[in-house]
Amino acid sequence: MRVIRSGSLEERIQAINEVLQRTDPERVAEYTYRLEMSWIHHDSAIEGVVYEPSELVAAINDKVVSDSSLIPVYDEIRHHKAAIDLIRRMAAEPVTEITLDTIKLLYTTLAPEEAEGKGPPRYRKDMPLHRTYFHEIAVPEKIAPGMRELVKWMGDPDNARNMHPIRYASRAHYQMLQIFPFPKHSGKVARLIMNLILLREGYPPVILHATDRQRYYDALRSSADAVANVVQESLTNAVDSAQRYFDRVQGQPDQATA
Predict the structure, then answer these.
(1) How many angstroms separate the first and last alpha carbons of the chain?
(2) Nearest Cα to 83, choosing from 3, 10, 158, 187?
(3) Distance from chain centroid for Cα 90
(4) Which conformational region is residue 210 in: left (phi greater than 0), alpha (psi within -120 to 50 degrees), or beta?
């Protein structure tokens, strides 16, 4: 069965999900592996950290580290993979509200050292002078009330019901990054929350490519709607890539070269 290339984004995603259900599990595992390698690579590059393909492969495949200087790199990759695995499990479970505990769990999965004998992870205590993101962020004393308001907004069924899932997920992500709650990994946590929402709605994960880094930063300085537009484009690109992959798996020529 050829993956359809016409129709709405939702129809194309549904077609890909149907193909995934019919495809050999080994092929699906290979697709998921490639997808998540790309996810970690690009999501880290958004933060200004670029991993070599060999580093990603070695870390994900749990290869022995011969160079001790690479241990922090491998650990960070593995923690990112663990956080992705966590939101996939959460997305497959009965839907529950996203709470502050959910957000803090994702943070400590990315940064386990923040939970080692220190109690609950702490919010950011300062206004960093040197940072990757340059939009306005909350002053420290407004982080806790801002996060409470965010989870209250996400927990309001009217918001989820009255907004398109892409807009809803994008706004949750945007609002979290306006708060920028943690001393590190706030961007990764916000994008993981966005993808948790999308996965629960049957969408593929959004992978914001490194080439879109500046557009993404500009959108964060602009509005939630601007972020949603970047996310929509990234989803469309993800669907196109999935269609090309499964066309190759099924031995059919790529439409672009047919």
Answers:
(1) 17
(2) 187
(3) 14
(4) alpha
Provide the domain limits for residue 141.
24-113+133-249
Domain count, the chain: 1
Contacts of 241 (CB under 8 A, 6+ apart): none
The pTM for the full model equals: 0.91
Is 65 part of any domain? yes
Does 225 fall in a domain? yes
Q: Is residue 121 part of a domain?
A: no
Q: What is the CATH classification number for the domain harbouring 56?
A: 1.10.3290.10
Residue 91 neighbours by CB under 8 Å, 6+ apart? 196, 199, 200
Q: Is 255 contained in some domain?
A: no
pLDDT tens figures, 146-186: 999 999 999 999 998 999 999 999 999 999 999 999 999 99
Choose among 144, 211, 139, 137: nearest CA to 178: 137
Please report, for residues 101, 104, 106, 132, 138, the alpha-carbon distance to residue 125 in angstroms, rounded to integers and kept in the order given. 19, 16, 19, 17, 11
Q: How confident is the model at residue 4 (pLDDT cuts 50, 70, 90)?
A: very low
- Label residue 209 by pLDDT band (50, 70, 90): very high
Residue 223 DSSP class:
-
